[in-house]
Amino acid sequence: MELLLGITILSLFFHLSSSAFTPNNSYFLACGSTSTISLTSDSPPRSFVPDSNFLRTSNSLTLSNPNASPNSPTLYATARAFTEPSSYQFTLDIEGTHVLRLHFFPFSAQNHDLSAARFNVSALDRFLLLADFAVPNTSTPIIKEYLLWVDTGELTITFTPNSNSGTSSLAFVNAIEVFTAPTSLLGNSDPLSIAPSGNINQLQRQALETVYRINVGGPKVTPANDTLWRTWVPDDDYLLSKALSQVNSTTRISYSDLDSAEVAPQLIYLTARSMNPGSMVETNPNFNFNITWRFPVTPGYSYFIRMHFCDIVSKTFTALYFDVYIGDQFAQENLHPADYTDNLAEAFFRDFALDVPTSQQVLHVSIGRSLSKTTPQTANAILNGLEIMKVNNSVGSLNGTFNPGSVPSQDNKKNLVSPAVLIPSIVGGVLLIILAITALVFCRRRRAKPVPKPKESPVSWSPYRAAVANFIGVSSKSTDGTAPNASPNFNLGLHIPFAEIKSATNDFDEKLVIGTGGFGKVYGGTLRDGTRVAVKRGMRGSRQGYPEFQTEIIVLSQIRHRHLVSLIGYCDDWSEMILVYEYMEKGPLRKHLYGSDFPCLSWKQRLDVCIGAARGLHYLHTGYSHNIIHRDVKSTNILLGENFLAKVADFGLSRSGPSYGETHVSTGVKGTFGYLDPEYFKVQKLTDKSDVYSFGVLLFEVLCARPVIDQRLTREQVNLAEWALEWQRRGQLEKIIDPRLEGKINVNSLRKFGEIAEKCLAEYGVNRPTMGDVLWNLEYALQLQETELKREPFEDSVNMHSQISVAAVGPSPSTTISIDDEEGDGMTRMSEDAPDITTTINVFSQLVTGEGR
Ligand SMILES: *[C@@H]1O[C@H](CO)[C@@H](O)[C@H](O)[C@H]1NC(C)=O
Ligand SMILES: *[C@@H]1O[C@H](CO)[C@@H](O)[C@H](O)[C@H]1NC(C)=O
Ligand SMILES: *[C@@H]1O[C@H](CO)[C@@H](O)[C@H](O)[C@H]1NC(C)=O
Ligand SMILES: *[C@@H]1O[C@H](CO)[C@@H](O)[C@H](O)[C@H]1NC(C)=O
Ligand SMILES: *[C@@H]1O[C@H](CO)[C@@H](O)[C@H](O)[C@H]1NC(C)=O
Ligand SMILES: *[C@@H]1O[C@H](CO)[C@@H](O)[C@H](O)[C@H]1NC(C)=O
Ligand SMILES: *[C@@H]1O[C@H](CO)[C@@H](O)[C@H](O)[C@H]1NC(C)=O
Ligand SMILES: *[C@@H]1O[C@H](CO)[C@@H](O)[C@H](O)[C@H]1NC(C)=O
To answer: Which stretch is the leader sequence (predicted)?
Structure first.
């Protein structure tokens, strides 16, 4: 049994890591065609099938292009045309982001001129994708691409001919693609907002339209060279001054993990533009100039901008720093590829969000030299690829102002979640978790050998989401009585034999102790492969803390994030409870704030640390489809690594948050005095807002550099949260800040910071911002510090409020695995809550390639 399970798990692992992306749901329709059209040149190849089974109308026309030459692509030789509102309907049994592509190629046939057609297209009865659309009369097909979030159920696409333009108006379409996007595509980190606007909350839930998809410095990439059948066009038409840049290329790049290959294909990263020194030697000896691309955009919409980078020009890994501007503002200063990758020539991307003002019709994207981090000799900047997506406006439209909610709806209002799909997946999920745990317990001694060093993942990649999706995908298929496969989430490769740990810590040498906590001692050590680690050894033999131990293994082995301390392994041989983490060189944040003689952290460093910690918590709360509450946010649980990179540690108390429909989890109070959410304390209702409260206390601790409870002080000063709030409300926060920061904080930055902390400490959780809001506002505070913007106080405050109201959309749907030990008997029970039943829709993007096949 043991052996069998082991083999199954291993082979599953192997299978998953070697297989290419295949969408769970995919529909490729050749509209109006009576036969299947195979596109064998696509990679992977696709077959477009006749559309009649997906049509929800009895009144439509089938048109054939009389001029179609036998050797032209047959996808565009036929069309489906409509004279009245008509829909296509697709059944999708997996929730998530879906790609929708619509192909249009007008021709004249049977007395109908398709180039005269004018129509609206809407999706899910909720998003207007195209308004009063007239297909340009070109010789190449027009392809529009969208990304839509679809909950399990039906995706309806409605075509509505416009009657006001004449009696014989038509709507038509030549081909439709609908398929599930890989979970890594949109990831789960929200884009960095370009202040003071540009907040896209819950990016995945927005309707996005791909407007530009550019292979910078490279050739056109076609569906034959992209596993998601995307088209990437060269940048020449958008580049402002060609002479300022040069094209660099390479033959090999790497990805930080397997899923990343789906985000953009290799071909995109193999070429880049960099700064051309030759062009400027005489006129600009400081080498201070920008490479700029210019894109026409629709005023008044928000845009999501993804920039792809891969350092193929530097000689050394850490050499490159450059500045990125979007919309003529700083998007990121001193962008440093080494912050996001482990090697030269490793791909990564950065996401940004920007509101285009109503007065502006073009968007500039620029890269240029970092003035603070480089000399004219070392200056350079790169860009490999660029995607620009339009975000639906507040009425759900991507084109026009019409509210598609009033689209005449078809008789297709079906129950969106079919219980037939849901129940097996729940049962399967529970079964699977139980099995995985069993496997974890039974196999732990078998898998002792190589200790894989977990890779740090760049902020916006989400390698582990795919694993979760697998898990759900597999589970729904494993209810037919066959042996279910265990999930790769419970990484059995993490077990480390006791002997190895003993040797790494020099037989638990007291000299190597770097910390002591309720759980036991923490030792610094070095594994045989040279990896520096922190070894946390629980008090031996006692069952106390065993549930926390298990929680930490389960939680940490599933999630990886740049701002969460990674678990490298664990050991439970001989009833030991040992957890092995990545080594955090600079130790806990608290030590750098007070009570030691470490050098004083600058304000910028402190903001960076808070931002990092906020990112980690934001990820815990919203990422990875579990929402996890940390429950013990404090300055000793924020650890600092090299370059003061902050990571959140200690998940021993964490547990999954409420799932949709529940507002809280009730539980015995745990946490640390001084940081405890009073609401949680009073009513024992745990929500992620309890972490927000603790984080607010932490913010004041960072600002004032004193313990959160200090009994030596006068009564009103003992509790930092109360004391600081008092001064914040008086508008005199600067009176109690760390004296070493006096005169070094920009007043606007301080005001913003105080506001954020105050909001976090709101008495009731509902009034507190989400970690996402906190994060954006901290980033803004950092920008205020760095750029010393002169703003009216009024303006910043409005910004804060509007972000909070946008955020109040509600918990994102999730499949929550909760680990229950209410009885306190050390037994871990698992349950899986049902996925969110509400239908929230996310529209993706629209792509104008002006070209097809
Ligand atoms: C589109 O082009 C075709 C031929 O190029 C022409 O016959 C037709 O009239 C054009 N339609 C419109 C609406 O301009
Ligand atoms: C793109 O795909 C085609 C067909 O698979 C292949 O022949 C071609 O070499 C690829 N192009 C590049 C640049 O890899
Ligand atoms: C980048 O390209 C330019 C010319 O296109 C070349 O002179 C330079 O050496 C290249 N740099 C690298 C690192 O390949
Ligand atoms: C680069 O572009 C940004 C944004 O448009 C601008 O503020 C900056 O002055 C430019 N730098 C140079 C050297 O032109
Ligand atoms: C896009 O539409 C959704 C659903 O209608 C809405 O919740 C969201 O706020 C819209 N996005 C923006 C940026 O207004
Ligand atoms: C709607 O789309 C058309 C073409 O697809 C474009 O020309 C027009 O500017 C768009 N209008 C808005 C308000 O987005
Ligand atoms: C199509 O969209 C336009 C622009 O929003 C709207 O004015 C018009 O009423 C819509 N037409 C139909 C038939 O729904
Ligand atoms: C679909 O299922 C496969 C395994 O069958 C999995 O690898 C993939 O991540 C799933 N995709 C989504 C979007 O759930």
So the answer is: 1-19
- Asked if residue 644 lies in contact with residue 626, where contact means CB atoms within 8 angstroms, the answer is no
- Sole residue written with tokens 């594994």: 527
Residues 372 and 430 in one domain: no
Assigned domain for 418 exists:
no
Residue 152 lies in a domain: yes
Cβ of 396 below 6 Å from ligand 5: yes
Please tell me whether residue 697 adopts helix, strand or coil conformation: helix
Q: Is the minimum distance from the CB of 21 to ligand 8 under 6 angstroms?
A: no
Bridge partners (DSSP) of residue 27 are 178
- Whether 620 and 755 map to the same domain: the answer is yes
Tell me if 318 is assigned to some domain: yes
Q: What is the pLDDT of residue 155?
A: 94
| Pair 252, 384 in one domain | yes
Which residues line the annotated binding site for ATP? 536
Q: How far is CA 629 from CA 51, 358, 822, in A?
A: 46, 40, 16
pTM of the predicted model, to two decimals? 0.56
Residues 89 and 165 in one domain: yes
At 587, list the tokens. Answer: 């130790």
Q: How far is the CA of 14 from the centre of ligand 2 (A)?
A: 27
Q: How many domains does the chain have?
A: 4
- CATH code, domain carrying 525: 3.30.200.20
Token reading at 787: 């750029």
Nearest CA to ligand 7 atom 3: 131
Nearest residue to 53 via CA among 176, 180, 181: 176
**How far is it, in rounded angstroms, from Cα 725 to Cα 703?**
12
Question: Could you tell me the two tokens for 531?
Answer: 């990896």
Dihedral sign (CA 671, 677, 678, 682): negative
Beta-sheet strand order (sheet of 171-173): 60-64, 78-82, 171-173
Clarify whether residues 163 and 289 are in a common domain.
no
- Is residue 56 within 8 A of residue 77, CB to CB? The reply is no
Residue 606 sits in a domain whose CATH number is 1.10.510.10
- How far is 91 from 155, CA to CA, in rounded Å? 6
Between the CA of 248 and the centroid of ligand 3 the distance, in Å, is 6
pLDDT in tens, 833-847: 323 222 222 222 222
**Domain at 148, CATH number:** 2.60.120.260
Ligand 4 atom nearest residue 364's Cα:
5
Q: How many angstroms separate the CA atoms of 94 and 461, rounded?
A: 21
Contacts of 815 (CB under 8 A, 6+ apart): 429, 468, 472, 625, 626, 659, 832, 833, 834, 835
- The first and second tokens of residue 545, run together, are 């803390």
In this predicted structure, what is the pLDDT of residue 487? 28
Stretches in the chain below the pLDDT threshold 50: 1-19, 404-491, 541, 543, 625, 657-667, 789-853
Position 163 scores a pLDDT of: 76
Which range of residues forms the domain containing residue 364?
A: 201-391
- Predicted pLDDT of residue 285: 78
User: Both 626 and 483 in a single domain?
Assistant: no
Is residue 162 within 8 Å of residue 132, measured between CB atoms? yes
Q: Are 126 and 396 in contact, with CB atoms under 8 Å apart?
A: yes
174 C-alpha vs ligand 2 centroid, how far in Å? 26
Q: Is residue 120 part of a domain?
A: yes
CA distance linking residue 760 with residue 771, whole number of Å: 9
Q: Which positions are catalytic?
A: 632
Tell me, yes or no, whether 559 and 657 share the same domain: no
> Sign of the CA dihedral 625, 629, 635, 637?
negative
**CA distances from residue 746 to 466, 698, 780, 787 in whole angstroms, order as listed:** 42, 20, 12, 10
CA pair distance 508, 612, nearest whole angstrom:
32
**Full DSSP string of 285-313:** TT---EEEEEEE--TT-EEEEEEEEE--S
- The sign of the torsion formed by the CA atoms of 446, 817, 184, 770 equals negative
